[in-house]
Structure prediction request, 335 residues.
Amino acid sequence: MPQETTINPTFSLQEAQKALETHIKNLNTEGKPADLYAPIKYIMSLGGKRMRPLLVLLGYSLYDSEWKNAVSPAIVTEVFHNFTLLHDDIMDNAPIRRGQPTAHEKWNENTALLSGDLMLIKTYQWFGESIPSDKFHSVLQLFNACAIGVCEGQQFDMEFESRNDVEIKEYLEMIKLKTAVLLGFSLELGAILGGAKPYEAQQLREVGISAGIGFQLHDDILDVYADPKTFGKRVGGDIIENKKTYLMLTALQKEKEAGKNDLQNWINKTDFDEAEKVKLVTQIYNNLNIRQFAEDKMNEYFEKSYQTLENLSVRHENQKQFLKQFLMQIQERQK
Prediction:
C-alpha cells in the first residue's frame, strides 16, 4: 500500500462535499404530475458517499485549479448513479435504501420506474446544460458507452443468480461493468473538462476502473466481516441470498479442489435459520482462508490503480497525491 504523503490540495473534501450537497438541493426537480418528480428529489436527498461527483472534481483538479467549474457536471454523474439505484431497488425488491424506504415502497413500482426513466432523461438534459459545447459530443459518446456497460453489468448480475457455473473471471468482468466503469467515467469526465489530453483522460479512466473493481471486492468482504454496529446494513446478507460474490466463488472453487461440498450444501438449502447459515458459511470461509484471498485480490486492483496514477502526467502533482489519498480511504473504509 502506498505511503501517505503530506500534501496541500487546492480544496478539501469537506469543502467539495458541501458544494455538491448545495447544488443537489438546488436541482430543479419540480414539475407536474408531482408524483413523477417527487421520487427524484427524494432519492437524491438520501445522501450517500457522493463518490462519483467527488471523483469528477478530483479528476478536474489534476489539470485546472478552478474545481468549482466542474460541480454542475459532477452532480449529473450522481443523478445517473441514483437512477440506477432506483431501478435496481425495484429489480431486487429492496425495501430500504440508506436507512429509508425505497422509492417503490414509498410510492409504487410503476411510479418509481417512470421516475427512473425521467432521471435518465434529466441526465442527458443536465449534461447538455453543464458541459461546454466543444466537449459535449466526445463526453456524450463516452457516457453512452459507460451507461451501456452499467446495464450490461446489471443483466449479468441478475443472470448469475440462476447459474451454478459462474467463473471468477466472469464475476470480475460483471463488477467492472456494473460498478467500476462509472467510477472510471467520473475521473475521465473531470480530466476532460479540466483540459487533459485524450490519452491522459483515458489513463485516468483506467485508474477509476481498477479502483472501482477493488471497491466492489471490498464491499464483498465487508458484507461478511464488517462490524454490524458501523456497517449500516445487515452483515451476511450476501450469504443469506446466495449472492455470487468473489468470496463465494473462490470458496466453491477451493472446496471443489478439496473434494468437499459443504458450501454447496448450504446454497442448496431452502429451509434454514438465517443466523446459523451466516455463522457456518463464514466459518467455511475462515477455514479456507477466503478473506485473505479476497483482500489480496482487492489490494491487487487498488495497487494497479495507484501505479497507473503514478505514471500519469498531470499539471498539478499535489492533486495527484490528493486523489491517491482519496482512493486509499475507499480501500480502507469499514462501511
